[in-house]
Each structure stands twice: as C-alpha cells, then as structure tokens.
Design brief:
Chain A: GO terms for molecular function: UDP-arabinopyranose mutase activity. The structure holds two protein chains of two kinds. Helix content of chain A is 33%, strand content 15%. Chain A contains ten helices and nine strands. In chain A, α9 (312-327) runs antiparallel to α10 (332-351). The longest helix of chain A has 24 residues, at 279-302. In chain B, 36% of the residues lie in helices and 16% in strands. In chain B, α1 links the parallel β1 and β2. The model of chain B has no long low-confidence stretch (mean pLDDT 93). The chains are: A alpha/beta, B alpha/beta. The interface between A and B is large, with 58 and 57 residues.
C-alpha cells in the first residue's frame, strides 16, 4: 500500500524555479480541489485551465492561484472554425492550453493526481524535478547504465564515448505514477487491485529510435522546442476512439525529437494517482485503439522525415501527410486526424506568430 | 528478496576470474548465494602464485594456464586469456545453459531494506523472463511482481523475446572510467535503483564485465575476448575488453532478435587500485571507443548471418575492413574473434 503525501504545513516554495517561464496546464471537467494539496509546489506558478464538457458549469479554483480559464465557448471564439481540431469531452482538449500559453515551458497534470512520497516519506515536488530534467541534457545516442549521468552522485560509466558526454537539449520530461498505474482497460480488468508501490529512483533518456507510451498525466516539455508537436489528436465526443490522445502525441514527438536531435526523458518525478477510471468505460474508448496501434506503431517506427524538415511545424506537417497516405486505409478516422493535425499547426502559428518563436526547432 | 519461482541450479555455472590468489574472503561472503551451484574458477595465467586459496564447501573446478595451453597453445593462452579475460576460458569450457560472472573484488550488496542481495538468483530470473527491446515500457520490467505493460504498449509485443544477457550494477565503487573517478575521488554510488529494464533495439551501451550473466546456449560465442588495449592492466580502469565484447554482443543480439537487460542486481564493489595512477597510463581505450561508435552505429550484419557464430565471423570481417586501418588493436580483435569462434566450435562440438 502506498499513500499520498500530507503537504499541510509545508511552506510555499520560496524559490520557485522558472516561475515566470512556465505555465501549468490542467484539463478539468469536475473540480480543482486537488490543487489544495499542491499549494507548496504549484501556487507560485500561472495556471491555464481548460474546462471540458458543459461550459456553463462554474469551476472553482482554490484561492491564491493565478490562472486563466478557457471553456468550450472560449475555444470556439478564439479558434473559430479551427476549433474543430480540439477534442470535446476528452482530456485531449488540454492541448489548447499549450497553444494559448506564452511561456517557454509547460507542465501538465491531471486533476486526480496528488503529491507522492519518496521512500524517505518526504513529499515529492514533481514540478521541480521536471524542471531539473528539462534544464539538464539528455543522452539519446548511447545508453548510460547508471541512468542520468548528470544527476548528483552519478556519472557516465566506463566505456561511454567522451564525444557524446555533452548530451543534447531535453525537450520532454515524462513522469510516473504511484498507486493507480496507467494500465489499459484489459489489464485493469485482469488486475483491478494492482497498485504501483515501487519507487524507482531514476531518470533516464529514451534512446533515439525507440518509441514509448507517453502518458499525459504528469508531463512537462519545452514549448519552444517541441510545442507544436504536442497535439493530442481527435478524441472523445463524435470520435471513434478515446484514451489515445497522449499516446498519439507521444509517438509524434518522439519521431520529431529523434529527427531534430532533441531528448526525451522518463522516470522521476512520481505523482500519486488517486482515481482508477472505470475499466468497462475505458474498454469502449480504447477498443479500436488496441487494434489500430498494431499498425500505427510500425508506421511511426518507419516514419522518416526529410532533411528539409528543420522546424517542428515542418516535421509535423510532413508527418500529417504520411498519416493521410499510409493510415487512411486503416480507417477514415486517420484521414480526419491528418487534416486536424494541419489545422492544429495553422492555429498554432496564428496564435504564436513566427517572430515570437525564432528559437523553434533545433535548440 | 523472493523471486516468483525456484531456479534450477543445475542449469547455471558461476564463473569467476581469479586475478587474486586468495579467494577466501570473496567466496566466504558469497557462500550463502553460491551454495548449491557449480563454480568454475579460472586463474589468470599471469598470476605469480602457484595455488589459489579456495575455502572448503564449494563445488568447484579450477582451471589454470596448463589447461588453457592444452586447448589453445601457449602463446595464444596469454594473448586471449590474460587478466580479466581469463574468465572467458570458463565460458568456453562450461556445459551449462546460464553463466553468472562476478569480479573477484565484489561482495553481495544490501538492498534499501538492509537485506543482502542474491545476485545469482536475480540474474537467472532476468535471463529466464523475456526481454522487451522493441518498445519501451515506462514501468520498466513488465513481468515483475507488481508491474505490467502500460497503456499504449502494443499487444503483439507483449510476449517479448528471449533474454540473452543480464547486466547488473555496482554500489560503492561504480564502474566509472579513470578520468571520471580521478576527478571525483570521493564519489561512491549509493543510489539503489529498484528496476530491471530491457535496453532497446539498436541502442548502444557500455556493458561492464564486473557483474554480468548470459544465456550461454543462446549467445555463448558472442561474448568475445578480443580487444586488448596497450598496457592493459589488472584494474578495470585499465581495460576495455568487456566494453568491446558488449558492443559486439548487443549488435548480435539485436540482429538475432534477442534482448539485453540492465539494472538489478547490484553488487558491492570494493575499493581497489587508484584511478589517478591508472590515469597516468596513456589510455588507448578512449580513442578506440570513439572509433567504435560510428562503426557499430552504421553496421548492418547480412541477413544470411543466422547463427551466433556466423554473426561473430561477419562482425570480425567488418571490423577488419572498416576499422583495421585505424588501429592495429582492431585487426588483432578481428583475428581473435575468428579464432574464438573456431575454438568454441571445437571445444563444444561434442555438444
């Protein structure tokens, strides 16, 4: 058994790293009570709340937080016809928050994620760990058996080529979850009582050429470097699939990061995931995805971007063309998705004019 | 630490390279975990002392220079099996399915709960469970108690592939190179990372020979004692034989569709040698590693190489052709690899 941390009494972080350079994006349909627990670590930061579902519902934000909130009406107003690319009735809508943010970094977290405890019982400041992960290099070109070589107490092992020890810039930091693990519906049905109680004290870079399942529950990224590729797809209302939003984004960003020479890390920090969603509901949402991913994975594994694609947007548009060409035969959904990917980029560029994003692409 | 199932001790040989004559402290500390297993102890042919000091109570076979000379002749004995490479002789003559090999300056580590780690059982467990090199599982080893494949992991890849090697880690004196340890003289590894994971397909890594296990039946000949750097010494800071072996092994494993795991078990590595002293030697290893990386990165073994032996021979050919002109050490390594395969066939031909 594992419990969340009790953060009562912990003072608000007096030296919050990147306070003015980071936005916290939270999708919600219910309430934001979980933010009470996160005060010591998150209160100094600006929140972008993306309210899914009924726009007339009033979402209460705990006192003391500085935030902007967008509901469906806002999304429609701001994007006009392009709002079609933003999912409705699915947490995929969170990517709208990435688009409207003006900051360099994004941390996104689900509203059922609380503060975890490390093995010593101390409350884990997940945001601080994500920031450390993003600010320090990745090592995708050669695997270090002692994991993150830049971490206090660690280093590169014997045999690690010296020419690769500077690493590359980190674009994404993927955190993990104690208590309710991020299992798919079939696994949830088979193991309803399984809880993740194992705290693996490591951060590591996912090697170049390797794909992974990116979970959006506890995720941070450099918006300047990879933001436009963090589109969470068409899910939820009116769509044949759900619970694959973050997966889709994860496959896209990994292919693009590999192409642009950026790094993706996984491991610490842990958050405490409190709510197990209904596996039967999940099964209905994931059902098609389970079959489709068998085709989608080889597609991404073999996706080769051209030398001419040097910005994230260019890479993403190229990817969307490949999706249309190669995956439409799998299901007409992918044709729509490919179009939505283009719409997303158009919307992104409209809201984020190029002059302000001169640093986009290679760091 | 309990594992899901009992391992069959008859399938395992524990191979120890003796670079020190007195193995009593080493074997006594490992006794709880070595009992019941067959041990192969191979004496470094250049060790001055005549006899090894081995305590009672172990089922052990000892091999020394004379045994090596019977198999490979006297000049090749030193070339192939001196120093840390002596353990490869043990791999050669073993008849078992799994090999577990630990340097003689390592003792059992303690886990965060204070229990001694049974490195042998953990290694065998790693080898018996499938590896998953084709897709990264963010919860690490999916077959471990309390873990599983995460959402988004393709179902067709969930049976995994056979695990060819298990690379363990080290508490206290980690396997850092001389410049790094010399710079951070006080640094000791105190971080116990509670995970086993598969190193993804095509990812290269430095495999350390300090704490390693492998499936001999599956990939035995691929562990090649081949690369010798000039002035190779009897501390790990002065050798690269295992790193080269590991680069070859990983490439062959990737080609044949098997997997390599890394992580648990930890061993506790004792203080030995002096990194600063080792630094004083001209360290050839660094240059050789730099040249190896682009070579392995672009290397493609032919489709026709379907056995481990074929792969080693093809790899040796590529080494000779592409790296031979860069450094004589590579030509020698290529020759040694070919010789090793022939040796392996002749010693193991009776099955």
């Amino acid at each position: 058994m594992v419990d969340p941390a009790n953060t009562v009494g912990i003072p608000v972080n007096p030296t919050p790293l990147l306070k003015d350079e980071l936005d916290i994006v939270i999708p919600t349909i219910r309430n934001l009570d979980f933010l009470e627990m996160w005060r010591p670590f998150l209160q100094p930061y600006h929140l972008i709340i993306v309210q899914d579902g009924d726009p007339t519902k009033k979402i209460h934000v705990p006192e003391g937080y500085d935030y902007e909130l967008y509901n469906r009406n806002d999304i429609n107003r701001i994007l006009g016809p392009k709002a079609s690319c933003i999912s409705f009735k699915d947490s995929a809508c969170r990517c709208f928050g990435y688009m409207v943010s003006k900051k360099k970094y994004i941390f996104t977290i689900d509203d059922d994620c609380f503060v975890a405890k490390d093995p010593a019982g101390k409350a884990v400041n997940a945001l601080e760990q994500h920031i450390k992960n993003l600010l320090c290099p990745s090592t995708p070109l050669f695997f270090n058996t002692l994991y993150d070589p830049y971490r206090e107490g660690a280093d590169f092992v014997r045999g690690y080529p010296f020419s690769l020890r500077e690493g590359v810039t980190t674009a994404v930091s993927h955190g993990l979850w104690l208590n309710i693990p991020d299992y798919d519906a079939p696994t949830q049905l088979v193991k309803p009582k399984e809880r993740n109680t194992r705290y693996v004290d490591a951060v590591m870079t996912i090697p170049k050429g390797t794909l992974f399942p990116m979970c959006g529950m506890n995720l941070a990224f450099d918006r300047d470097l990879i933001g436009p590729a963090m589109y969470f797809g068409l899910m939820g209302d009116g769509q044949p699939i759900g619970r694959y939003d973050d997966m889709w984004a994860g496959w896209c960003i990994k292919v693009i990061c590999d192409h642009l020479g950026l790094g993706v890390k996984t491991g610490l920090p842990y958050i405490y995931h409190s709510k197990a969603s209904n596996p039967f509901v999940n099964l209905k949402k994931e059902y098609k995805g389970i079959f489709w991913q068998e085709e989608i994975i080889p597609f991404f594994q073999n996706a080769k971007l051209s030398k001419e694609a040097t910005t994230v947007q260019q890479c993403y548009i190229e990817l969307s063309k490949m999706v249309k060409e190669k995956l439409s035969s799998l299901d007409p959904y992918f044709d729509k998705l490919a179009d939505a990917m283009v719409t997303w980029i158009e919307a992104w560029d409209e809201l984020n004019p190029p002059a302000a994003a001169a640093a986009n692409g290679k760091a | 630490m309990s594992l899901d199932h009992e391992i069959n001790k008859n399938e395992v040989d524990i191979v120890i390279g003796a670079l020190n004559a007195d193995l009593t402290p080493f074997l006594d500390t490992w006794r709880p975990f070595f009992t019941g297993f067959h041990l192969i102890i191979v004496k470094d042919p250049e060790l001055k002392e005549e006899e090894l000091n081995i305590p009672q109570g172990f089922d052990v076979d000892v091999y020394s220079k004379t045994d090596m000379e019977k198999v490979v002749g006297s000049s090749d004995t030193t070339a192939m099996f001196s120093g840390y490479s002596c353990r490869y002789f043990g791999y050669l003559v073993s008849k078992k399915k799994y090999i577990v090999s630990i340097d003689d300056d390592c003792v059992p580590a303690k886990d965060p709960k204070g229990f001694l780690v049974d490195a042998v059982s953990q290694h065998v467990d790693n080898l018996e469970r499938p590896a998953t090199p084709l897709f990264f599982n963010t919860l690490y080893d999916p077959y471990r108690e309390g873990a599983d494949f995460v959402r988004g992991y393709p179902f067709s890849l969930r049976s995994g592939v056979p695990c060819a090697a298990s690379c363990g880690l080290w508490l206290n004196l980690a396997d850092l190179d001389a410049p790094t340890q010399a710079l951070k003289t006080e640094q000791r590894n105190t971080s116990y990372v509670d995970a086993v994971m598969t190193v993804p397909l095509k990812a290269m890594l430095p495999i350390s020979g300090i704490n390693i296990a492998f499936n001999r039946e599956l990939v035995g000949p691929a562990l090649v004692p081949a690369l010798r750097i000039a002035g190779e010494g009897r501390v790990r800071w002065e050798t690269l034989e295992d790193v080269w072996c590991g680069m070859c092994l990983k490439h062959i494993v990737d080609h044949l569709g098997y997997g390599v795991k890394t992580g648990l078990p930890y061993v506790w590595r004792n203080e030995r040698g002096d990194a600063v002293e080792s630094l004083k030697k001209k360290w050839e290893g660094m240059k050789l590693m730099e040249k190896s990386v682009p070579f392995f990165e672009s290397l493609k073994l032919p489709e026709s190489a379907v056995t481990v032996e074929d792969c080693v021979v093809e790899l040796a050919k590529a080494v000779r052709e592409q790296l031979g002109s860069d450094d004589h050490a590579f030509t020698q390594a290529a020759d040694a690899m070919v010789k090793w395969v022939q040796l392996w066939s002749s010693v193991n031909s009776s099955g």
